[in-house]
Amino acid sequence: TDEWKIILAEFSTNLLKIRNKLGTSQEATAGIELSVRNYQKIEKGESFPSFKSLLIISKNLKIDPAVLLDI
């Protein structure tokens, strides 16, 4: 639905802003537990992360997962 597309776009925009603010690469954000390609899909808004991916990303960015969901 359109509502999910809006939420996904807001999430990916928020994720990109946070990563850029922290000066972290996509590779470092993905880490070893998440493929860079999958991370790129999440950041581009092509795919919503699983709960596990959300936890991996927040751990690698050293932020609380709630920060990623603050959209």
3D architecture notes:
The protein has helices at residues 2-22, 26-30, 36-43, 51-61, 65-68. It is mainly alpha-helical.
The biggest sheet, with number of strands, parallel, antiparallel or mixed sense and barrel status, is: none
Structural class: mainly alpha
Could you tell me the mean pLDDT? 94
Give the C-alpha Rg.
11 Å
Question: Count of DSSP helices?
Answer: 5
The shape is: globular
Task: Please give the number of β-strands.
Answer: 0
Q: What share of the residues does DSSP label as strand, in percent?
A: under 5%
Share of helix, binned: 55-70%
Q: Uncertain segments of ≥5 residues (pLDDT<50)?
A: none
Give the N-to-C terminal Cα separation.
18 Å
From the structure provided, what is the oligomeric state, counting identical versus distinct chains?
A: single chain
- SSE order, as H and E? HHHHH
Features:
71 residues; mainly alpha; 5 helices
